[in-house]
Here is the input.
Amino acid sequence: MVAAGAALADEVGLARLTMGLLAERLGVRTPSLYKHVGGQEDLNRRIAALALGQAADAVGSAVQGYAGRDALAAAARAFRAFVLEHPGRYAATIGVEPSGPDDPLAAAGQRLLQAFMAVLRGYAIAESDVDHALRTLRSLCHGFATLQSAGGFRWSADVEESFEWLIAFADRGLRAG
Here is the structure.
């Protein structure tokens, strides 16, 4: 059911996902969904955990065997592709916090964080600067992907060239850091 909710969120947008719409899609009555989830907030949290896990798998697989700029490019491309393919489920991950260390959100988020940490191992980033570097990478990748997903790049410059520029920019910054 969570996978169906995630797919529906991708289709209609997370803001338009409701228990009633999901029940209709699944061909069941809305009260039947409450056997599986505690309500809309619980469904959204489960979608967020699913999305973080899927993003972690995508980025983690992409960076294997690469280091430095190649790992950075692979991670950025995989993350962007995930957001573009799954905008609704990715939206569920924004602003949601794990309720504790045993929350599936925590484990999935940690896996995604580790995938991006693997990228940083290819750069001479001081331990005291790792959090800053991770936040910078997240901001760059998240910002570009969500803007592109929302149709925010409508001017004439090629989006792919802009994305390659972003990768080169991030690489220069990480090497300088």
About this structure: The radius of gyration is 18 Å.
